[in-house]
Amino acid sequence: LLLGTLLWAPWRVLHGAPLAELSGDQDFQLFLHKNLEFTRKIKGDVAALQRLVCDQFQLCKEEELLLVRQHLGITQAALEQCHSRSFQAEACFSQIRNGLSVYRGSLAAILELLPGHASLVETLQLDAANLSSNIQQQMEDLGLATVTFPTEPQSPLPTFSSHFHHQVGSFFILANFQRFLETAYRALRHLAHL
């Protein structure tokens, strides 16, 4: 119950977000509803890959792997602009686009780990690129500025010192991507209900 309250709390703050000028725009509402469905599809594909990693490598529970995670240095893409008190659509959309780009690149590690499921991974990469493109197009249509956030230099992919580290790293990439998509989905849903 406490976890549910903590996860929901940032979204209650958004009800005062100054987006009235967007909420009545039919094209914007259509964009939101289409991309909510698209995000849900992507989440389902990430969940399918998570099940594969769980079934093939018995890597299913994050709490059992936290020490290895710290060693690998795999981090979550930022989305704090999508649930901050000073919510702005342009900042949130920009962070979603940045995160989609990071995870699209990170999926190469999954592709190496699960070559027999290349079509699912490649579809996921394409879907992430398409969702990012949809958001960019909508930002341009609405006249929203693309916001650039200072980021740490991104290495193309983590270097894994062993096959086990590659498995665990892939597990956390997928877990982080799933959490990222949950937050992005909630942000889009919030905008659709303004």
Automatic annotation (TrEMBL):
Subcellular location: Secreted
Pfam families per UniProt: GCSF (PF16647)
Keywords attached to this entry: Disulfide bond, Glycoprotein, Growth factor, Secreted, Signal
One CC-aspect GO term: extracellular region
First and last residue of the signal peptide: 1-16
One GO biological process term: positive regulation of myeloid cell differentiation
GO-annotated molecular function: cytokine activity; granulocyte colony-stimulating factor receptor binding; growth factor activity
Similarity annotation: Belongs to the IL-6 superfamily.
Record protein name field: MGF factor
Source organism of this protein record: Eubucco bourcierii
Species classification: Eukaryota, Metazoa, Chordata, Craniata, Vertebrata
